Amino acid sequence: MSLLAQYALTGVVTGCFLILATIGFSLTRQVEGFLNIAHAEMLGVSAFITWGLNAVAGWPFIPAAAAAVVATALIGLGIGRLVYDPMRRLGPAVLLITSVGVAYVIAGVMHAIIGTGIRSLDVPLATTYKAFGLRITDYQMAVVALAALTGISLALFMNRTRTGLAIRAMSANPELAASRGIDVRQTSRATWLLSSGLAGLAGVMLALIATLSTDIAFNQILQILAVAILAGLGSLYSVIVAGLIVGIAMDVSVYFIPAGYRPLIAFLVVILALLVRPEGLSGKARS
Amino acid sequence: MQIFLTIVMFGSLFSVLTLSLNLQYARGGMINFGVVAYFAAGAYAYAIVTQQPPKGLDQYLFGLGAPWWAGFIAAGLAAMAFAFLTGRPTLRLRGEYLALTTFAFAEMLHSLLVNERRIGNGTVGLANVERPDPAGIGLSEGYAYAGAAFLLMLVTALAFRRLLASPYGRAIDAIRDDETAAEAIGKDIPRLRFQVFVISAIPIGFAGALYAMITTLVSPDLFTAEVTFFVWIALVLGGERTLHGAVAGTMALVGFQELIRAIPFESIRAAEIAAAAEDVLTGLLFILILRWQPFEVLAKRKQTA
Amino acid sequence: MTRDLLVMDRVIKRFGGLKAVGGDAGLSFAVPEGTFLGLIGPNGAGKSTTFNLISGVLKPDSGAVVLDGVDLSRARAPQIAALGLGRTFQTPRAFSSLSVLDNVIVGADNSGETIGSAVFGRWRADERALRDKAAAVLARVGLADRVADCVGNLSGGELRMLEVARQLVRDPKILLLDEPTAGVDPSLQAKLSRILVDLHAEGRTLIVVEHNLHFLLQIADSVVVLQNGQLLSKGTPSEIKADEKVITAYLGTEHAA
Q1: Do B169 and C118 touch (CB under 8 A)?
Q2: Which residues of chain A have pLDDT under 50?
């Protein structure tokens, strides 16, 4: 029984990571209106900038991670303005397909620079803590804390700041927002910065808890998609619930069936959910 | 000469996938991001039907030892069955939801092939897949399989053209143009969509069987989401409006990749960089074509002229 | 007495808590076979919503729509169309990748529209008859010389006529036209008026939503007036013209405008 509880706890950590990884993706979906497949590659970009600064250039972890998040946010903004902005009129399907091309380019550049093989950060080994027969490492706790912190600050940002309110207005109804005097271009830029920065943060976490290799990103997009579909492709708050559901379902499943099926579980949850509620957890019908 | 043959062989083979996707997307308005699953279903069905029963270290359960043509037919049926299974629950979903669920189904199949060793030996796959020996008709293997792939492509294109030129194709076009108006004249959209989805999976299954014959190996590694992306890029490259565009796009993409692979490299690192550069160039090409849509512009110019 | 072809029975439709159609008691009226019914009312009275409820684009929250004895509550739009209901839309809809002729043929109930027929080429036998029928209908709505054109070259008025043609080729039991004169020039309006009168004379059942009352009250034989989603009045055109309630609620504002 305690093993099952252990899997559930690990599932919470996985869920928290998935929340971090998916919020940016959902934000892009809401404001820019399309599914950005290349979002997962941004996690990889951030993870490897952290690795480069930390393990290769010898920076301490924290400044390296901070620099990686900022750099990823800027790269995301650059790609948004350069590639997606001029194409917005072509509609979400074309943008979705385009983002596959963007993912190819980013993955290719990373392969060329870094090459294949497994890397590791220059950080102390994780310390394991025990309580009530459950084990958790300090890095895992950091992921949970960071997810909670990000969730709270994001909620505050969205509700209290002008930019946050503009983003919310844009995602609810872009035409109405524009007619009410919201600067669409500026809000769109803020969104790119924010969503890519969140991807950067998730990437840093990934570098910390996972095995670092250049195909790391692609494996993430599957789970990000699962969480995003489950959450209903729109609502930020349902991402939190969906992330936890997918994370816990995946890790707890290992208790019952071979670990190889872990990724399959994510999609099983999603397909079941879609069959019951075609619009996702948030249940917001699209017109 | 060898490289030319390879381009024709794989170009034709993947053109079958692009043609089917063209039917689903450009005509049926369905974004299928799980193309590889139907391809894998065909390849595995062929291998399982034709291989000998398991012995020694084999972990797979079934090997029917049937002749190649039985395997070929089974491949088409398997892809069709998988389309039936995945299409039923997902086709009522719109646009991007459909893209995501088809993608999810493909990943699930992949995961099943990796983990369920009783299907096809898990990650090891099934090697030495049976195939007909073309020496019987006096052809070398390269020519015979390039010819077979070309023939399959031709038959697929002709069959699709026949379908689209009929009243059935007209109804499909009407649905894509305006769903509400199509419903007002009694077109049952979910039914028609489902039919197009299932029908277009059949040639993909056949292509899977042929692919298994050519490589004589099926393993989960060969059937990743990259195949799906590859076909999408080829479709966009060739312009989504026409059947010959789909073929031209695939041929160009396969040719491009084969040429890069043909360059001899001094070191592993150089080869690695070349492979990466291939990805970058493919991605860039893809973005540029989507950005400026040269084929759409051409098509429009033709229409108004 | 002729039988009722269409019956609206206490129909209520809400949008986000607001009653768009039906009020408290629900909207009820019957359309006997062969009627040319004009459906009028000020903006927001629920005319288009009523059309969408009849044709299955929307589903009523309560009450029933009955077409030729069949309850439509569970039927989807294509099934209702197959039962013999034809409709046009407020903004004309055309299939942009099909020619004008194909835009009409596609409306016909075509047994050749199957995969089997496509594979074996059986459809060719019927296609000629369908083409002739579609061409005849196009000639009737005045688009004879545009048969081979692509729909992008048609004017707004011609698109409306094309939509009428696409429905006529199906021989619907009842035809619903949503603002057929909007954006149509006067000469074409006169032609449309003649077509509608002819269709009525042939015994077809028509329901027409129209802002142009001058146009409608001349040719309809029965009128239903809606206000705030509820039945305000019902009668012949001359009764409606004389009805105080209608004049104050609707005609008055129309005349003032």
Answers
A1: yes
A2: 283-287
Contact B287 A98 (CB under 8 A): yes
Length of chain C: 257
Q: Count of CB atoms within 10 A of residue C198's CB?
A: 11
Is the pLDDT reported for residue B202 higher than 90? yes
Q: Indicate whether B18 belongs to any domain.
A: yes
Q: Dump strand ranges (E) for chain B.
A: 126-127, 217-218
Residue B36 domain boundaries: 2-224
Contacts of B80 (CB under 8 A, 6+ apart): B198, B201, B202, B205
Q: What angle do CA B88, B93, B96 make, to 5 degrees?
A: 125
Phi first, then psi, for residue C202 (nearest 5°) are -70, -5
Cβ of C106 and B163 within 8 Å? no
Residues B49-93 have pLDDT tens digits of 988 887 776 777 777 777 888 999 999 999 999 999 888 877 776
Residue type at C106?
A: V
Pick the residue from chain B with its C-alpha nearest to C115. B168
For residue A52, the one-letter residue type is: G
In the predicted model, residues of chain C with pLDDT beneath 50 are 255-257
Q: Which of residues 259-288 of B touch C (CB under 8 A)?
A: none
In Å, how far are B54, B110, B111, C201 from B119, measured between CA atoms? 11, 12, 12, 69
Is residue B150 in some structural domain?
yes
Question: Has residue B302 got a pLDDT over 60?
Answer: no
Contact yes or no, A with C (3+ CB pairs under 8 Å): no
Distances (CA, A) of C174 to C80, C235, C236: 11, 20, 19
* Partners of residue C115 in chain B, C-beta under 8 Å: 163, 168, 195, 199
DSSP-derived 3-state class of residue C243: coil
Nearest neighbour of C123 by CB, restricted to B159, B166, B180: B166
The rounded distance, in Å, linking the Cα atoms of A7 and A247 is 10
Q: Indicate the length of chain A as a whole number.
A: 287
Interface residue ranges in chain B relative to chain A, Cβ cutoff 8 Å:
31, 89-90, 92-97, 99-101, 103-105, 107-108, 111-112, 114-115, 225, 229, 232-233, 236, 269, 272-273, 275-287, 290-291, 293
Q: What tens digit of pLDDT does each residue of B238-296 get?
A: 776 778 888 988 998 888 888 877 777 777 777 778 888 888 888 888 888 888 776 66
| pTM for this model (two decimals) | 0.82
CA distance B84 to B261: 37
User: In chain C, where are the structural domains located?
Assistant: 4-94+172-256, 95-153
Cα→Cα distances A25→A28, A49, B50, B163, Å: 5, 20, 45, 40
How many independent structural domains does chain B possess?
Answer: 1
| Residue B148 maps to a domain | yes
Instruction: Give all domains of chain A, ordered by start, each with its CATH number.
Output: 2-276 (1.10.3470)
A97 and B290 Cβ atoms separated by less than 8 Å: yes
Single-letter code of the amino acid located at C196 = L
CA B46 – CA B115 distance, rounded (Å): 20
3-state class of A78 per DSSP?
helix
Q: CA A186, CA A163: separation in Å to the nearest integer?
A: 9
The ipTM (two decimal places) reads 0.86
In chain A, the residue whose alpha carbon lies closest to the alpha carbon of B96 is: A93
Neighbouring residues of A61: CB distance < 8 A, sequence distance ≥ 6: A50, A54, A121, A122, A123
- Contact list, C117 vs chain B (CB under 8 Å): 166-168
Residues in chain B: 305
Around Cβ C141, how many Cβ atoms within 10 Å?
21
Give the CATH fold of the C4-94+172-256 domain: Rossmann fold (3.40.50)
Does residue B271 lie in a domain region?
no
Model confidence over B147-165: pLDDT tens digits? 999 999 999 999 999 998 8
Please return the burial class of A139, using the count of CB atoms within 10 Å of its CB with bins 0-12, 13-18 and 19+.
Answer: middle
